[in-house]
Design goal:
Structural class: mainly alpha
Number of helices: 5
Strand content: under 5%
Shape: elongated
Number of strands: 2
Oligomer: single chain
Order of helices and strands: HHHHHEE
Strand order of the largest sheet: 1-2
Largest sheet: 2 strands, antiparallel
Helix content: over 70%
Mean pLDDT: 77
Low-confidence stretches: 166-182
Distance between the termini: 15 Å
Length: about 180
């Protein structure tokens, strides 16, 4: 099965949500786990996630980069201004992910403070990530839906003038409601 760039963008967004949740859960579990014994399921889950933290983080960077590339080239019917707005939020997220990775790589040089900076960068990344998803993405989706409706109306009226009865391309929506023409 071949995925379009829009389909890949949507599916990779789902993967990014899961990876971000798994990577950031470690911090919450650490705080909550202090109230319980070491053998509590919260602390066991935290230990498992800590062992997978680096591969999950690297995977998050790779999927985010691919997601950004596909979103930039694959979202049709959106103005350049909104594309740049959304692309900028995604780029800021990616920059913070790279800085998070850099804080880990340079941990020996910034030894006493690296964990502090890693956590600060993680919090800022999470805030920018939520902003990107909650504020920027719906604006892009709305404009894309409006522009597709206009294109469908023009397509229908042009065919009517020519006396041709043809079906107008239908809008399909996936889990995030991003439109693409079938």
């Amino acid at each position: 099965m071949e995925l379009s760039t829009i389909e890949f963008t949507i599916h990779s967004a789902n993967i990014i949500w899961v990876l971000t949740f798994l990577v950031s859960t470690i911090f919450v579990l650490r705080i909550v786990g202090k109230k319980y014994k070491k053998n509590c399921w919260i602390n066991k889950l935290n230990r498992v996630l800590r062992k997978k933290h680096i591969p999950l983080g690297v995977g998050l960077i790779i999927v985010s980069l691919l997601h950004g590339i596909c979103a930039y080239i694959g979202i049709p019917y959106v103005s350049l201004t909104l594309t740049i707005l959304n692309f900028t939020g995604g780029i800021v997220c990616l920059i913070f992910l790279v800085l998070l990775c850099g804080s880990y790589v340079l941990r020996k040089k910034i030894k006493p403070y690296w964990m502090f900076w890693h956590r600060v960068l993680a919090i800022v990344f999470f805030i920018v990530f939520v902003w990107h998803v909650v504020v920027e993405v719906p604006v892009i989706q709305e404009e894309a839906h409006q522009n597709i409706s206009i294109i469908q109306e023009k397509h229908t009226s042009f065919l009517t003038i020519l006396g041709i009865t043809s079906s107008v391309p239908k809008i399909n929506s996936f889990s995030y409601g991003l439109p693409f023409v079938a």
